[in-house]
Design brief:
about 210 residues, mainly beta, 8-stranded antiparallel beta barrel
């Protein structure tokens, strides 16, 4: 589940002489594991939800974005592991490249795995994900409180593509809705998707 070996699929899909996405040569982990939510205007507009696990960012594409409402069950489709450096990536992936389109960092922070036991033993967070259910507490700039990821389709040796649900737990942090992704602003630069795209296009013309 971890280490740079987990980045083989990520690197195999990208041409790093054409995209400014990080290759992932080194992973500098903090004292607490991080998470990031990026908005990605690719072939379809979606949110990318990423959790640091065993030296990489485990990643899910969430079409409607994470919700603060416990009644919302948000589809989350797993994608390839990303390097830890990706948590700060913001910009435009060139058209024709994998995931071509604009990316902004909508939220970031740290998270705390919530203990889960199975048959009397405590599972690590990575083991919980492999088992298909993991709960965690987010301490982000926008997202806070308990969340859970639950696999409802696929899994090891099933032959089906995996599909998960991302759901907010019922706690005193519940209730915040997902914003309009077109109006949402980056926590790094304060820019919208359209502003990032326009600025990079202008820089390209000046070069």
């Amino acid at each position: 589940m971890g280490g740079n070996d987990g980045l083989r699929a990520y690197r195999g899909k990208r041409h790093f002489d054409r995209t400014r996405e990080p290759r992932g040569e080194q992973a500098d982990a903090g004292e607490a594991p991080c998470f990031v939510v990026q908005i990605h205007d690719a072939s379809t507009l979606h949110f990318d939800f990423r959790l640091e696990v065993d030296g990489v960012l485990k990643s899910w594409s969430v079409p409607k974005g994470p919700s603060g409402d416990p009644h919302d069950k948000r589809l989350a489709m797993p994608t390839e592991d990303h390097p830890l450096e990706y948590r700060t990536f913001e910009g435009v992936i060139p058209q024709g490249e994998y995931g071509g389109g604009t990316v902004i960092v909508w939220d970031e922070g740290t998270y705390r795995p919530l203990v889960r036991k199975k048959k009397g033993r405590t599972l690590s967070f990575g083991q919980s994900l492999e088992d298909g259910h993991a709960s965690f507490w987010l301490d982000g700039r926008k997202l806070r409180g308990g969340y859970a990821l639950t696999r409802f389709r696929g899994g090891k040796d099933s032959g089906e593509r995996e599909a998960w649900l991302l759901v907010k737990e019922k706690d005193d942090r519940a209730g915040r809705a997902t914003p309009d992704p077109w109006r949402a602003r980056s926590v790094h630069s304060g820019r919208t998707l359209k502003q990032v795209a326009a600025e990079e296009a202008a820089e390209g013309h000046e070069a």
